[in-house]
Design goal:
Helix content is about 30%, strand content about 25%. The chain is α/β, with parallel strands linked by helices and about 160 residues long. It has a single domain, classed as Spore Coat Polysaccharide Biosynthesis Protein SpsA, Chain A (Alpha-Beta Complex). The chain starts with a strand and ends with a strand.
Length: about 160
């Protein structure tokens, strides 16, 4: 993949765990990590604001999880030319780490499927961005994964 970005969604009341998940993701092969905040923005604390981590406030947070996903996709595409894929990670999923992120990217490169999913995170190739941007309300990416079951690899 040319450029892949991890997008950490801080939708839940576990936003205080952002620092913990970032510590585990910073050594991954993701080009950058976008932390999408909203209702709980004041709970999100990042001690080391390296050039690889950017906080992004979701102005539409009242519209549900889909708005966090759309905010992350739009941020990656508009600010980072050549975005080839994104990896969605919920802050409450404390099993995601750099090894998992690297495995998602490597599996996509080797197998070429547009969706690589795991219990901790899901990679979406840029060909899936239009569908991610069509999500509404509290509909997360599971619907897209189910529709594209034949183009999805679970690791």
């Amino acid at each position: 993949m040319k450029r892949t970005f991890a997008i950490v969604l801080t939708v839940t009341d576990h936003a205080d765990k952002t620092e913990q998940i970032l510590d585990r993701l910073l050594n991954s092969s993701a080009d950058k990590i976008f932390v999408i905040t909203g209702r709980n923005a004041e709970q999100v604390k990042i001690k080391d604001k390296s050039k690889n981590v950017e906080l992004v406030f979701n102005n539409n947070w009242k519209e549900g999880i889909s708005s966090y996903i759309k905010c992350g996709v739009n941020k990656a595409v508009s600010n980072e030319p050549g975005t080839d894929g994104i990896i969605l990670i919920s802050v409450e999923n404390q099993s995601a780490d750099s090894k998992l992120i690297n495995e998602l990217i490597d599996t996509h490169l080797k197998r070429g499927k547009p969706i690589i999913t795991s219990p901790g995170a899901t990679l979406f190739h840029q060909s899936m961005f239009p569908e991610l941007l069509q999500l509404t309300g509290d509909n997360g990416p599971d619907h897209i994964i189910n529709i594209h079951e034949g183009n999805t690899i679970s690791i």
